[in-house]
Design goal:
The protein is of the alpha+beta class. It contains 5 helices and 8 strands.
Length: about 190
């Protein structure tokens, strides 16, 4: 092969790699850029004993969806999953981006702010899921709603190019009826799935 032709072919090789991304890279790019409504549609009807309820637009005016979950029975645990895209472009996966950290801190401030009927305090911090790449930064809470002792879990992290906020609250004396960590892990698995 003449040297000039070889140089031309070698110069075009990097461009050839950009033309058709590998199937796995294309799938991961699609997962990183899903709209909140599309992500909400991926949420399972049942996650660790919690049954999916209605999906609604976010009350705060953000572009996104809020999906309610609850356990069955007379004494129920409730959960809310919020999916939204903040201004400023896609959010990296996981709990460590500035947008995910701010979403977590805001969620925690809102929950721990004393209200006449609610008193909560943070009891522990963790990252979920426990196995695999981290997705959510979480805080376990305890306190009371009125006279009812409660415990809960608050989480936030980047997923699908947007943010996921998750809240679980349940009566303390019936805590064995629900596993908030398993619920959060099931939600992450559903959103990260193929």
């Amino acid at each position: 092969m003449p040297p000039a032709l070889r140089r031309a072919v070698l110069a075009l090789l990097p461009l050839a790699a950009c033309v058709a991304p590998a199937p796995e890279a294309a799938r991961q790019a699609a997962v990183r850029n899903r709209a909140p409504a599309e992500l909400a549609a991926r949420l399972p009807p049942d996650a660790a004993g919690f049954q999916r309820g209605q999906a609604l637009p976010l009350a705060r005016g953000e572009a996104g969806r809020e999906v309610a979950y609850a356990t069955r029975g007379r004494i129920a645990a409730g959960a809310t999953v919020e999916l939204y895209r903040p201004e400023g472009g896609p959010v990296p996966e996981g709990p460590d981006s500035p947008a995910a950290a701010e979403a977590f801190e805001q969620l925690l401030r809102d929950a721990l702010r004393p209200q006449p009927h609610r008193r909560l305090r943070e009891s522990a911090r963790l990252v979920l899921p426990a196995a695999g790449p981290p997705a959510l930064r979480c805080a376990e809470t305890e306190g009371s709603y009125g006279r009812e002792p409660v415990q809960g879990l608050l989480c936030a992290g980047g997923i699908g190019g947007g943010l996921l906020r998750l809240r679980v609250t349940m009566p303390e004396r019936h805590a064995l009826a629900a596993d908030p960590r398993a619920f959060a892990t099931a939600i992450v698995a559903a959103l990260r799935g193929p």
